[in-house]
């Protein structure tokens, strides 16, 4: 976790990433521009409270807030607990998955690693190559790899643009080089459709459209909703996301209902 870069340099990097001037940040954080300048240049050593105040206004993720504290000579504030040890948070995630039994739902971390899923996710991952579904399965690789869900995705160009756009937002938010490496890997995957393909006039979100031989028209359609924990104080909890998929048309609704009736 330790960083060889001074805390002032790190804070300036976050300010630049957020495209804020020193004046803008100073006003937001309730400090003087002079003091902020001194902190960024190393002429003034910030207190623990000052580091946390600036990080809050820069919307620095909890993992990186710990790194700022260490760089400033303080102990990390936010613990990082494994999901298995999280108790109430883990139970809440499982209740959400269990309560979403009709439709697919997945739990991922900041790296988009698949942590948990409910049974209907098998409808999405049917036919995915085994090498993509191992212990370190990554949902973006599963979605966009040519041996993954991509080969069944009717609107691959549109869905790919949507997922890569979400990933780029996470890179901007976190500055995580591992996410940038993942992005570079994913953009190299082949795609024979233009991206983005504009959504149709009746679409209100970007849908995921999958080929499926057992439904009229041969296609299932989904939209998704992402849930996160509010005001987390643990790095793991802060980085958890639950993506729940819902039918985007009547054909998919009826099919999922009929499948649920056979389970």
TrEMBL record:
* Keyword entries, A-Z: DNA-binding
Q: From what organism does this protein derive?
A: Labedaea rhizosphaerae
Q: Which Pfam families match?
A: HTH_31, MLTR_LBD
Please give the PROSITE patterns that the UniProt record associates with this protein: HTH_CROC1
Lineage, top-rank taxon, reads Bacteria
Cross-referenced InterPro entries, in alphabetical order?
Cro/C1-type_HTH (IPR001387), Lambda_DNA-bd_dom_sf (IPR010982), MLTR_LBD (IPR041413)
Q: Which CDD domains match?
A: HTH_XRE
One GO MF annotation is: DNA binding
Write down what this protein is called. DNA-binding XRE family transcriptional regulator
Which SMART domains did the record assign? Answer: HTH_XRE (SM00530)
Q: Which residues form the HTH cro/C1-type domain?
A: 11-65
What are the transmembrane regions? none
């Amino acid at each position: 976790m330790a960083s060889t870069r001074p805390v002032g340099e790190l804070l300036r990097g976050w300010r630049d990433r957020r495209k804020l001037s020193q004046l803008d940040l100073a006003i937001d954080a309730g400090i003087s521009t002079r003091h902020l300048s001194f902190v960024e240049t190393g002429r003034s050593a910030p207190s623990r409270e000052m580091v946390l105040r600036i990080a809050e206004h820069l919307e620095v993720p909890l993992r990186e807030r710990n790194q700022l504290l260490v760089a400033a000579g303080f102990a990390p504030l936010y613990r990082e607990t494994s999901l298995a040890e999280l108790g109430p948070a883990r139970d809440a995630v499982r209740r959400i998955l269990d309560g979403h039994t009709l439709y697919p739902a997945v739990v991922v971390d900041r790296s988009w690693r698949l942590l948990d899923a409910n049974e209907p996710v098998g409808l999405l991952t049917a036919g995915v190559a085994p090498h993509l579904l191992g212990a370190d399965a990554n949902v973006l690789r599963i979605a966009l790899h040519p041996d993954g869900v991509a080969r069944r995705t009717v609107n691959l160009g549109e869905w790919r643009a949507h997922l890569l756009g979400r990933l780029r937002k996470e890179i901007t938010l976190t500055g995580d080089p591992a996410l940038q490496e993942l992005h570079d890997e994913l953009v190299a995957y082949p795609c024979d459709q233009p991206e983005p393909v504009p959504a149709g006039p009746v679409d209100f979100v970007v849908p995921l459209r999958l080929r499926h031989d057992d439904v009229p028209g041969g296609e299932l359609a989904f939209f998704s909703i992402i849930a996160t924990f509010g005001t987390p104080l643990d790095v793991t909890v802060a980085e958890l996301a639950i993506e729940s998929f819902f039918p985007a048309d009547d054909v998919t609704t009826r099919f999922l209902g009929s499948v649920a009736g056979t389970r």
